Amino acid sequence: MSAKPSSRRRKWLVLGGIAAFVLSLFLFFSPWAGLAKHRFNYLPYFGPKETRVVERDGRSVIDTVYATIPPFRFTDQFGRAFTDQDAAGKILVVDFFFTRCGTICPRMGVQMQQLQLKLNDPAFEDVLFLSHTVDPEHDTPEVLREYARKLEADTARWKFLTGNKADIYLLGSEGYYLAAREDVMAEGGFLHSEKFVLIDKDRHIRGYYDGTTAEGMNAVAADIKMLLKEEKIKRAEAARANR
Length: 243
Fold this sequence. Notes:
This protein is of the alpha+beta class. It has a domain at 66-234: Glutaredoxin (3-Layer(aba) Sandwich), CATH 3.40.30. Helices cover 40% and strands 23% of the residues. The chain contains 6 helices and 11 strands. The chain has helices at 3-29, 32-37, 105-118, 141-150, 165-175, 214-241; strands spanning 49-56, 59-66, 73-75, 81-83, 91-97, 127-133, 158-161, 180-182, 190-192, 195-199, 205-210. Strands 7-6-5-10-11 form a 5-stranded mixed β-sheet. The chain has a two-stranded antiparallel ribbon with strand order 1-2. Helix 3 (105-118) packs across helix 6. The protein is globular, with a radius of gyration of 25 Å. The termini are far apart.
């Protein structure tokens, strides 16, 4: 007598399973599926910003303009000019240091070294590391080249930059919004931030990280992956809009 209810339960379970499968296929192939995949947290923007009203598709919309890194021209560890044009189309990880620094710089150098090893993969070929000296009178290209050698830097991806002192300090304070200057009260005579700065391909600041710790290094590595994913999504959206 109990076989019929049991049989009905099995029947409803089978039908429920089929319905769930059909529903999952519908959701997977539906037009909204792509939107769901793209709902993730974009990295924030840092620095000053301004808003303006622009015309888009016949409508007035508010557009936000974020600060960008200004043009620059320095000299790398091989005595070659390195400018913002050489960094075009690249994601940048930036810091400030000096070779005679005995406090935070050695730790920052080790963490940047570990970051270049962590990202030693073709997927990250668009990532450049830029280290600016705040002591350019001492840190000549020859000195920087030896410093890079000790850190086992991949010189194709990691540039050690020197140049005009005023230009370096101005780029630090008004470009990356970091401390970078002479200071007689600071150990070694120079004051600079311990932060690594993440810059996207459009020259926007997208993150600040503690450059003296493994946690900071891992955080910037994770955010670089997020930034690459973000760019992939933007390219896909642009391609759909142009169809």
